[in-house]
Specification:
This protein is of the alpha/beta class. The chain has two domains: 6-121, no CATH class; 133-243, Rossmann fold (3-Layer(aba) Sandwich), CATH 3.40.50. The protein has 13 helices and eight strands. Strands 2-1-3-4 form a four-stranded parallel β-sheet, sandwiched between helices. The protein has a four-stranded parallel β-sheet with strand order 6-5-7-8. Helix 2 packs across helix 13 (235-243) and helix 11 (186-202) crosses helix 12. The chain is globular, with a radius of gyration of 18 Å.
């Protein structure tokens, strides 16, 4: 699609509650490209937690409340592969046969994960103003398998001349978060994040970036509990800090 004049911004629950600076950075990246960012104040949750736990009626009620927030025929940009995947991939299933199915399908079809939108729609060009740094990248399962946008972070970071990307041994593997999975299957989740943090630490990177706050919260929390490890940061905040003038 061609560059739009305006977009909706769906911030997600974790961005709102835990990573507001990441959400604001994503909005600044879009604004700098000349795109007007609309932030509906009534937005809440995409319905994913209830959906993944099998509470389809509750998920439908939560997701339905979002429909009125994104009525204009403009892109919906989400700084999360997980929430973007819920809207684009699972809303069509969730709303199947419902009176508002067509409206939900229309929103799903114009939903983009943030890095996907920056690369594929805006063709953003970045000028690195930061100090040299060595980083590792973690791509969420949803961004990789549902949205199919695993390589967009590399496309963006590859433009930054002072950033060296170090490859972790377990790059395509899950960090073990999976929302309620981390609570319901705590032992398995803990083993998975241990493998992930060991691999990330072994790279020698000083920063780990991702496009999903759930993964960052899980990996960063594990590093904190283990007592050492790289800093974790959302890709939007990382890009904005290195390129703002």
């Amino acid at each position: 699609m061609k560059k739009p004049d305006s977009v909706y911004y769906f911030a997600t629950c974790l961005v709102d509650l835990m990573y507001p600076d990441a959400g604001l950075a994503g909005m600044e990246l879009l604004r700098r490209e000349g795109v007007r960012v609309l932030f509906p104040q009534d937005q809440t949750c995409c319905g994913q937690p209830a959906f993944n736990s099998g509470y389809r009626d509750d998920a439908l009620a939560v997701a339905r409340a979002q429909l009125a927030c994104f009525e204009r025929d403009i892109p919906v940009v989400v700084p999360s592969g997980s929430c973007g995947g819920m809207i684009r991939t699972h809303w069509p299933e969730l709303f199947a046969g419902q009176p508002d199915e067509a409206k939900a399908l229309a929103i799903a079809a114009r939903t983009y994960e943030l890095t996907e939108f920056l690369v594929d729609v805006l063709d953003i060009r970045l000028d690195d103003l930061g100090e040299p740094v060595r980083i590792a990248i973690h791509t969420s399962c949803s961004a990789r398998r549902e949205m199919g946008v695993a390589d967009r972070i590399e496309s963006l970071v590859g433009q930054l001349g002072n950033v060296e990307v170090l490859t972790q041994e377990r790059k395509p593997e899950c960090c073990g978060f999976g929302g309620t999975f981390a609570v319901k299957q705590a032992d398995i989740s803990g083993a998975m994040v241990k493998d992930k943090t060991d691999a990330l630490r072994a790279t020698g990177a000083s920063v780990v970036i991702s496009q999903d706050c759930g993964c960052l919260m899980n990996i960063g929390g594990a590093f904190e509990k283990q007592g050492n490890g790289p800093q974790t940061q959302h890709v939007a905040e990382f890009l904005w800090e290195r390129t703002k003038r």
